[in-house]
Fold:
Amino acid sequence: MILRIEQDHHRFKQIIRGKIKQDLRKYISRGELIGRRGKDLISIPLPQISIPHFVHGSRQAGGVGQGDGDVGTVLGAAEPEEGNGQAGDAPGQHILEVEVTLDELAEMLGEELELPRIEPKGKKNIVTERSRYIGIAPTGPESLRHFRRTYKEMLKRSLASGTYRRALPGPFIIREDKRYRSWRTTVLPETTAAILYMMDVSGSMGEEQKEIVRIESFWIDTWLRHHYKGLEIRYIIHDAEAREVDQETFYHTRESGGTVISSAYRLALDITRTDYPTQEWNVYCFHFSDGDNWSQGDTQECVRLLREDLLARINLFCYGQVESPYGTGQFLLDLKEAFPDEDTVALSKIESKESIHQSIQEFLGRGR
Structure:
């Protein structure tokens, strides 16, 4: 039987969920949520939702049993107190901080953007072992001896044999009385995935462009974590050369050199060959740039690396071209010409933060 308070709590959670979904596109284009993220939860500020609570009247108001009164005196609300504040024309704002799990956020993202569920490419999984205590056994290590069950066995034996004497010391535990906690080890498969983020950090990629990449990658991470138990994330930055870095360096490094995109693709190919065998891992590559490349010859080299090797090793390759006043945007056009109908290639033009939700839809809408 479901209690009334549980029904009310469930209904309130549905209201919260509906409010978040209503404004989800706005949250996607803003970076505040990233700073509110915990280990498994994220705090979302929702306006115009107030939690039910008791409201106390004025302490100066009269009431039953307070002060003198005559027969026939009408009992009612006290006269309102005069206010000293200035009148306003805007309604009050009630801000409520609600916490939702990243899984719930991913489900809402999928519903709002109509994203299909991902179908993992590889079926060979990394296996983990998990042990659970499931019962009592007559043998085992002394560190797992169950003292209560051992004492009960000793009492049962003593009572059955007639040796139990309440006034005398003992009875004493013998080897047959001892009981131990037993466990069973189960093998659990975990579908694993790896994300390789690549970003151009040459002088033409400014802080605004990096902020767009940071916001979009947060939502990509959230969606992929919803589908894979194990997720590894690697970061590659490049200008004329490519190198692997940590997350902090990835989002805050800015170089002044030129751009050779093929250097990043070669490094990504080396990482997939060494650390992520095709039959065991689901690999996703996301590359963000403003569309400038050093030469047309290097662009042809990028196409060759993708077509001849990298695409065969990964689930999906995504290129996001972030609008920049200094970028020509030619690289996106070249990729569209080279891969017009390739299922494993997703291309997107990200003009501003408001375009992030459309870009996520283009990247993840293939269910790969």
